[in-house]
Amino acid sequence: MKINLVSFLLFVSSLLLNAQSTKFTTPIIDNEVIFQENNGMVAVEAEYFNKQSKFEHRQWYITSKNAVSNVGSDEDAPHHINASNDTYIEILPDTRITHSDKLVQGENFSNKAGEIGILHYKVRISNPGRYYVWVRAFSTGSEDNGLHVGLNGAWPKNGQRMQWCEGKNKWTWESKQRTKEEHCGIAKEIYLDIEKAGVHDIQFSMREDGFEFDKFILTKDSTYTPKGEGLKVTTLWPMQSYYKQIAASNIENKTLPIDDFPIKGTGFYKHAEGKWLGINPNKQQEAQTTTPFTFKNGNYDLVFVAVGENDGQSEFTIRINNKKLGTFKPPLTKDLFEEGESNNALWENVKFKKGDKITVIAKIGSADGKEWARARWSGIIFAPVGKGKEVIKTPYNGAIKVAQNTAPVIKAPKGRIAVVADGNSPDPDDLGGTAISLALLRATGLENTLVHYSHSCDIVRVNRISEKAEIERHALMQSVCDVTARRWGGFDGLKFLDAKWNIDETIKDLAKAINASTAEDPLWIIEAGEPDIIGFALDASSKDKHKHVKVITHHPANDDAGDFYTWQQILDFGVEEVRIPDQNIKLKVNIAEWDWARDHKDPRLQQVWLFGKMAEVDDVVKFQKGKWDCSDAGMILYWITGANLNNGLKQGTVDDVKNILLNYIAKN
After folding, report:
1. Could you say which residues form the signal peptide (predicted)?
2. pTM to 2 decimal places
């Protein structure tokens, strides 16, 4: 299962919390859920434990908007607001609130790890090694700020006595170990040495009662510090049900799957190994089934989950106590069956009482009068008011079982890079290409290797673009450079140059970078536009430095577009040609493949998407319509993953870019 947009999504079982406090200690995820480490990091919501043990004296209780426990003493108010996933757990009862309260060893306090209140989490580790442990906690006093962490039943020395002193009365990340000498803890001393790949039992046990636990992260990066809600959660879970997947998108959802509706005598039958209810058109054309509403009185967004079909548009009517709520027809599909956003109906802010009769009436449909759709559907979801649209938009990844955000290995060769782009010619793809190039360099920590970036290198305007339109392009390219650099950070010492409008300064700047080249510190020039600026800079630089210059190119359209230099004349300077395949093949794609950036909550990704969209709506060229193009950034992707010395990616993909950027966003 792939967790994205994404975000990364949380896949949990549809088991619901009821109003009794005793149930708030029950796991709310299926026992098959495994949290997946990717690239040396894994995050887990605290409430997603698969079991508790040693809970005779203290247990962990789930707290959310609709799940508040009253277990013995617990003086502070709930803190689910601003908790990750709006939910956290607390170990109760809390009888030692201040230092003056009685300390009962082995009951409300335990300096012995693994003695009281153990939580268990299944985590798959693919990259063994030392993992530093970060925990997000809410502490209000001096006696609710300690925890222990263990591995597979063992409680190593460096997993004991996690301590919080700073960040009181707010959710705070910490990874410090309390010692006799330093009661507020020493950084980088809480870790687990995981020697083998595979599924491991990550465990936490109580040190002080009243501890409030939101989320934890394991990371191999000793310099990493979580921010905000921290890294998104990635799971491995063999779920093939679309209904279960979107029903689990919000922990407060209530569900009536088809299993809760009677079948006998209704006209429905179970289809696709019990995944859907449907109607056999050889027997009848209509079916009806009713079941009671069993949840808390209140208003909900009702989501009806149907299946689109290519044989016709079936019709579904929902009734509440025999009063019609509404009718829905899923659209006709190209595929035999289709589940997803457009096949779900939504009625918002509907009032329900426990015991209300929920009726589904289905009528089959036909597109040609010969073949019939079977009115397939999988259930109803009752979401919190205002959340129904989010439930419907939950991405679905079919039966993919393993969630992998597999970013390519970053192994840049030694040296520096210079980029010469156009963007002022009738080819607006440099807008997206520039934004992605800068984002990739920042995301991989290689921003300081960029020593020159110039744009608008098409020195002689062609007739296909007006003078006024070209001026706009210059301004857009400068904005892309300046805005992306500022928003992503790390390029403070670099001046982005307009090659045509500042030609002398541009040539001088690139020549300076060439003259600084040595065998140990070569210069890699990315040819993302016409070759003329490169030619002028080579001519203005020392000839003995040219053997330390490498020019990466991916398309003869750039090589052959010069007004002053041919490609052969560039090579005659003695530079090394590094040619890779046309990057348009995999990086000029349908714009929908970039919806993940458009819909991401981080404004840096939204901004990157916007620049690519500006190229797509260009009114000078037509070949960008419907496309999101960052093809020139493929040369940056090639270089940061190794170039021709370390087997770099010669045909990078959108997924490669996506995974690099999402990994960075999750950490920063």
Report:
1. 1-19
2. 0.48
